[in-house]
Amino acid sequence: MARRMIPLFYFLVSVVGLINVALASNDGVGKGVVGYDSYKVYRFYKNNGTGDLIKDMVLPLTDDFNVWTHNKNFIDIMIAKEINLENAKGIENYNYEVMIEDVYTAISETVPKKNENRNNNDINHQQESFDVGKINMDNFFFKEYRDLETIYVWLDLLKRSFPDLVNIETVGETFEGREMKAVHVSANNRTMNPNKKTVVITGGVHAREWVSISTACWVLYQLLARYGVYRKDTKYLNALDFLIIPVFNPDGYKYSWTTDRLWRKNRQNTYWPNCYGVDIDHSFDYNWVSNDNFPCSEDYSGEKPFEALEASSWNNYLNTTKGEYQIYGYIDLHSYSQEILYPYAYSCEAVPRDLENLIELSYGLGKAMRNKNGKKYQVLSACQDRGSDLTPGLGAGSALDYMYHHRAHWAFQLKLRDTGRHGFLLPSDQITPVGKETYAAIRYFCDFVLNPDL
Ligand SMILES: [Zn+2]
């Protein structure tokens, strides 16, 4: 135990310095940004509605809108405030409510607060008041969402603090030349893990889903900090390797900090000038179909499978660098909706090979999460969530299907908090509770994988 305490202490001290450096250089959200000061998010319930809500009702009023999420019960749409929905034809057929009154205010709740900004006096004050005995510094990093540069320096700190457990590897390079980093966590225990049983966790496939990134970091940190301290966590890391990619879409994530908080895709060129980005989660080569969308659309699939550089780099990395690793579990973190989704996404008619285990696992993950903080996570097939049962192709090319079909025994997509009150703009005070409930799910998952009866 003592062996672990020493590097942990230096790690915690270093985190303070890191955050200060990052904040000093951080452009933050604010410059050249896409403004969202005149938008609301509405939820339209489908029960009473007939026809196509967007085509029949929204488009005749405005083309200035953005669909946040949809499922069989409702659709959340961000629309400019000045649009008067009372004038919409057929609005009487829909029940609707305002979910977010002011998107701009909601955005401001997700960016680092004033007392953590570039003001040197504040930073000095923070350093003076630093006392490792009093402040739980391991939580300091998780007090706010962190930008890409800060996260990458933090990963290097983890490597220095836990050199026996951490390897930082390069998955590939993005369109804008950024490194896509994977953290390979391994206790290198050949006796307990001769087959290199591995659990893969990805965050940030969609840029605006910031809590998926903070949560991947949370899980990573718990695995390391608890190793050698807690019996169960030590057992997990002795018997399993973990591959964690906290920021699967570095260009998109960077862009969501500097320019457009609600950006979703990556940032590569398309055939259409001034339309950037491919939806990485529509780019994987398993049952890929073109979704016929204009390249400016948010879920543009590209013109061919693996067009998204991040998806093709991942495919290469996984099948060459990590070719011999046995992937037992894949968990792809997203937001929002509080859902646990199992394969397949592309079709509701395709029956997964071990549906029984997938469903048992899904409910187990959900129960572990609920037991932690009382938040309910709904279990459903990814195809239902994507709406592929109604519109084939909507769920094509997902990381979930690709991993389940090609590499992982069991694969899930977790849509984290919340259920729409804040949507993608989950305030930073929820980083820790979401991290805790997700780590509870990961522990359940490890128990399942390590069950000798399976
Ligand atoms: Zn997503």
In short:
With 454 residues, the chain is α/β, with parallel strands linked by helices. It is 34% helix and 17% strand.
Keywords:
Aminopeptidase; binds zinc ion; 12 strands; 2 domains; zinc ion binding; alpha/beta; M14A-like_propep; eight-stranded mixed sheet; glycoprotein
Explain this structure to me?
This protein has 454 residues and is α/β, with parallel strands linked by helices. It has two domains: 39-101; 141-449, Aminopeptidase, CATH 3.40.630.10. Helix content is 34%, strand content 17%. The strands form two sheets. Strands 5-6-8-7-9-12-10-11 form an eight-stranded mixed beta sheet, sandwiched between helices. α1 packs antiparallel against α5 (148-161), α6 (210-226) crosses α13 and α10 runs antiparallel to α13 (431-449). The longest helix has 24 residues, at 2-25. The chain is globular. Zinc ion (ZN) is lined by residues 205-206, 209, 334. Residues 144-449 form the Peptidase M14 domain. Keywords: Disulfide bond, Glycoprotein, Metal-binding, Secreted, Signal, Zinc. This is Inactive metallocarboxypeptidase ECM14. It comes from Tetrapisispora phaffii (strain ATCC 24235 / CBS 4417 / NBRC 1672 / NRRL Y-8282 / UCD 70-5). One of its GO terms (cellular component) is extracellular region.
Q: Provide the domain count.
A: 2
Helical fraction equals 25-40%
Strand order across the largest sheet: 5-6-8-7-9-12-10-11
Mean pLDDT: 88
Describe the SSE topology.
Elements: H1 2-25, E1 39-45, H2 53-58, E2 65-70, E3 74-80, E4 95-100, H3 103-108, H4 120-128, H5 148-161, E5 166-173, E6 179-185, E7 197-202, H6 210-226, H7 231-239, E8 241-245, H8 250-258, H9 309-319, E9 326-335, E10 339-342, H10 355-373, E11 378-381, H11 382-386, H12 399-406, E12 410-416, H13 431-449
Parallel strand pairs: 7-8, 7-9, 9-12, 10-11
Antiparallel strand pairs: 1-3, 1-4, 2-3, 5-6, 6-8, 10-12
Helix pairs in contact: 1-5, 6-13, 10-13
Bound molecules: zinc ion (ZN).
GO biological process, one term: proteolysis
GO molecular function, one term: zinc ion binding
Cofactor: Zn(2+)
